[in-house]
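Module 6 notes. Inverse folding takes a fixed backbone as the condition and produces residue identities as the prediction. Think of it as a translation problem where the source language is geometry and the target language is the twenty amino acids. Below is one complete input and output pair. Work through it position by position during the lab.
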């Protein structure tokens, strides 16, 4: 139980800092409702849990591949953030939920995009390697490491649920004009995050050369 609680705290500490995923979840909650914000966060939590699982089991081949290709992964992630930022600035404040199938497709897209963006930071796996080394379970899928992975997932989910609920409450107090400005601001912030990622990628490439 203690390992599970530690995992929950780690999951909360990883998810809580405001970054591109947080901005994206806030934007989607404001535009599309709490469910879209939470599902977006769920994608990030799933990616964190997957990285934790890789670190726990000790898939060195996967770890080395992800870290070795981090520049290309960061390139795609940075470009995708810029694209999402551009789309955010164009977002119409009126949402159209025409049909359950279309709504499900949009929820799936919300999950997949945040999962992909979280996976574009392969260095996260290094922090998980340190966590599992600290509890003496690195390289083996023991009960303790399994509890840690589950705890990380739960902790991350708790944060995204909290964020979507709070943001959804604020949403009820905003008018259409405020929503337009929020979309523009969130789009700019996402583009800035994307550009920073690209600059870091270029810097890493220059160091290697």
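Target side of the pair, the amino acids:
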């Amino acid at each position: 139980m203690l390992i599970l609680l530690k995992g929950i705290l780690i999951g909360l500490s990883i998810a809580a800092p405001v970054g591109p995923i947080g901005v994206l979840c806030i934007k989607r909650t404001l535009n599309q409702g709490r469910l879209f914000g939470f599902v977006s966060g769920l994608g990030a939590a799933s990616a964190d849990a997957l990285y934790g699982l890789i670190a726990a089991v000790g898939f060195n081949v996967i770890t080395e591949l992800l870290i070795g290709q981090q520049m290309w992964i960061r390139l795609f992630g940075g470009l995708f953030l810029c694209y999402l930022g551009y789309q955010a600035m164009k977002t119409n404040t009126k949402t159209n939920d025409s049909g359950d199938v279309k709504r499900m497709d949009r929820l799936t897209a919300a999950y997949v995009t945040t999962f992909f963006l979280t996976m574009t930071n392969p260095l996260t796996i290094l922090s998980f390697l340190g966590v599992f080394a600290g509890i003496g379970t690195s390289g083996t899928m023991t009960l303790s490491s399994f509890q840690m992975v589950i705890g990380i997932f739960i902790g991350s989910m708790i944060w995204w649920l909290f964020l979507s609920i709070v943001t959804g409450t604020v949403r009820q107090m905003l008018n259409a004009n405020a929503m337009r400005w929020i979309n523009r601001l969130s789009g700019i912030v996402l583009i800035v995050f994307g550009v920073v990622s690209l600059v870091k990628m270029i810097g890493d490439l220059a160091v290697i050369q």
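Reference fact for the lab report: Residues 2-208 form one domain.
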